[in-house]
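Human:
Care to share another protein and its fold?

Assistant:
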Amino acid sequence: MNIISLVSYPFLPARTGGQKGIALFYKYFSAYHAVTCVTTKKNKPGDASGYEVLNILSDSRLRYINPFLFFSLRKLIRKKKASHLILEHPYFGWLGILLKMSTGVKLVVHSHNIEGNRWKTLGKWWWKILWSYEKMTHRHADFNFFIQDEDRKYAIEAFGLRPDKCLTVSFGTEISGPESSDSQAGATRMLRQQFRIADERPILLFNGAFQYTPNREALGNLLYRVNPVLQKRNFHYRLLIIGIDIPAAIAEAEIPDVQVVGYAEDLGLFLHGSQVFLNPVVTGGGIKTKLVEAIAHNLTAVSSESGAVGVDPALCNGKLLICRDNDWEAFAEAIVKASGLRSFTPPSFYEHFYWANITGRAARFIEGHSLK
């Protein structure tokens, strides 16, 4: 099959979790079907692996209401003899529906959140308008991909979708199985040497893109609610904060047992060498991509309930400890417990979250339905 994908925002080079989710999905999905990705001017085609990138969309916000895109995309669909059009997010729903009606292409909506509900949690008054538009887009689609089971079940009920046309297509990892304990021990030694961390102190990690409000709020909760509890308990550690757009007030502050690293070119070193990953996110939506990557790297993770949505603890062999949202006393207690655990991420986790397996399930899903 020839697939056209429509990605309406910058994702190449892929730095944030959401960007990596799209780039890696198509990297692995293109092993099953030819993919041409239509996206914005700011994207760098050379960073795509295995699929073609066409910078057709403008970087202007007006691109979402540009009627001339219909003619460009219709011409491309006919030229490529495309069988399916995948929309990343529902924002170009109007365009996808028109192209489906005019070309006969099968429409796939790849949802990364229930967008209306996500904006509701962020306090936007117009969330209901988006929710209704999102519902219309999904109802016109031939197939609907959702990032986690809770979203899929919600959409089937709230949007009135056919269950047999919906599939959970999770965020994944490129790690296909457990890594050696020797490589992890080596990474830990490097971190301890580089940041002068004593051997008796566990290394904790929190990373994210901090221009995103839920991540910024989570960082504040971690530093100003969880950290004081741990200090009172006389529990000492080293928390490494990794990511872009860390607020200056935090980057320049001296907080006990906390070290702000900023952007790290080699995030893998921190994932390999840390012992505990922290995920105190309580707003936003969708699966937390960094949580999947952390557990794949054999970190024990402590997460809020909202932050752990989409990751089944039963797949994790005790590597995921979940606390009620905003219960920071329990979160601190779970950090102490996690620091002493020495279990390993099991094969079942990689079977579920390895990208080749995820995209293989997606490819077989649309193949099977398209042959009917």
